[in-house]
């Protein structure tokens, strides 16, 4: 695929990472069809240069047909259950056949890393992402040209998770929270960098898993301090759970990763190396 342009079918194209990924694909000369559940989603992907495909992640026939019309598939959409995610993945893999299928995982599945680790590290997921194991195993065992990208905590632009769970509540209370002493590292990656990794993954070896992290992992307290302009507050994990729900366990993880595999295999090198400066400007 390195020497010619291809047609890519994308789910989650109207979302935070999806729009950036459409931009990255089109910048490489690829044609993009993107699943769109609503009219506003269709308009969003169209604005970024993709052709909308009407349907939802729960429509296996639509997914299979759209994948069959493409040379490659990138699955970014967030399913509500493991069963839904796996059914969607298998439908698209059936459709794309021998073409590349890129599936989305995440770094939280590794739990606390106790130092810098890579894709060979054992899994120790908090409950909120424990379901990913059966899906990723099934995708890789399918025996087709499947690739998995595991993004870190994405920042830049809208920030999404960080903004929703930390920035906005902090503005309401006057202090951005961090959990415990806040010394746990967050494995961050800029939205534009992870988008380029998804685009590069079209050239990946079948059966490969890639960590998508930016190489700089500030502590949760450092993030809170820039988001709150110095106005922060420590909360317990129990308090965080009451405020955020099960995702609090994931935000409390201490994680550091190497993205050497993506660099060595695909030439991927994150361009954004100062997440605190980017977050300070939010």
Automatic annotation (TrEMBL):
Domain NAD-dependent epimerase/dehydratase: 8-205
Name this polypeptide is given: NAD-dependent epimerase
A GO cellular component annotation in the UniProt record: cytoplasm
Source species taxonomy: Bacteria, Bacillati, Actinomycetota, Actinomycetes, Micromonosporales
Superkingdom of the source species: Bacteria
A GO term, aspect molecular function: aldehyde dehydrogenase (NAD+) activity
InterPro entries referenced in this protein's UniProt entry, alphabetically: Epimerase_deHydtase (IPR001509), NAD(P)-bd_dom_sf (IPR036291), NAD(P)-dependent_oxidoreduct (IPR051783)
PANTHER family: NAD(P)-BINDING DOMAIN-CONTAINING PROTEIN-RELATED, PROTEIN YEEZ
Coiled coil segments of this chain: none
């Amino acid at each position: 695929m390195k020497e010619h342009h291809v047609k890519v079918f994308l789910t989650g194209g109207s979302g935070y990472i999806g729009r950036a990924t459409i931009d990255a694909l089109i910048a490489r000369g690829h044609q993009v069809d993107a699943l769109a559940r609503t009219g506003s989603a269709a308009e969003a992907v169209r604005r970024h240069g993709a052709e909308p495909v009407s349907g939802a992640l729960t429509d296996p026939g639509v997914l299979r047909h759209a994948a069959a019309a493409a040379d490659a598939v990138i699955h970014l959409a967030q399913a509500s259950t493991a069963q839904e995610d796996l059914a969607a993945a298998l439908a698209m893999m059936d459709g794309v056949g021998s073409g590349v299928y890129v599936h989305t995982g995440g770094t939280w599945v590794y739990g606390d890393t106790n130092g810098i680790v890579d894709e060979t590290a054992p899994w120790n997921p908090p409950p909120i992402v424990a379901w990913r194991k059966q899906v990723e195993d099934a995708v890789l065992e399918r025996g087709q040209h499947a690739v998995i990208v595991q993004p870190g905590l994405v920042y830049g632009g809208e920030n999404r998770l960080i903004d929703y769970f930390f920035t906005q509540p902090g503005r309401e209370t006057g202090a951005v929270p961090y959990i415990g002493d806040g010394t746990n590292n967050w494995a961050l990656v800029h939205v534009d960098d992870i988008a380029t990794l998804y685009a590069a993954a079209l050239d990946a070896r079948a059966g490969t898993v890639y960590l998508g992290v930016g190489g700089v992992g500030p502590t949760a307290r450092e993030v809170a301090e820039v988001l709150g302009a110095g106005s922060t507050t420590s909360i317990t994990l129990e308090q965080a759970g009451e405020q955020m729900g099960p995702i609090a366990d994931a935000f409390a993880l201490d994680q550091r990763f190497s993205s050497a595999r993506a660099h060595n295999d695909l030439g991927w090198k994150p361009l954004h190396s100062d997440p605190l400066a980017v977050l300070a400007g939010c």
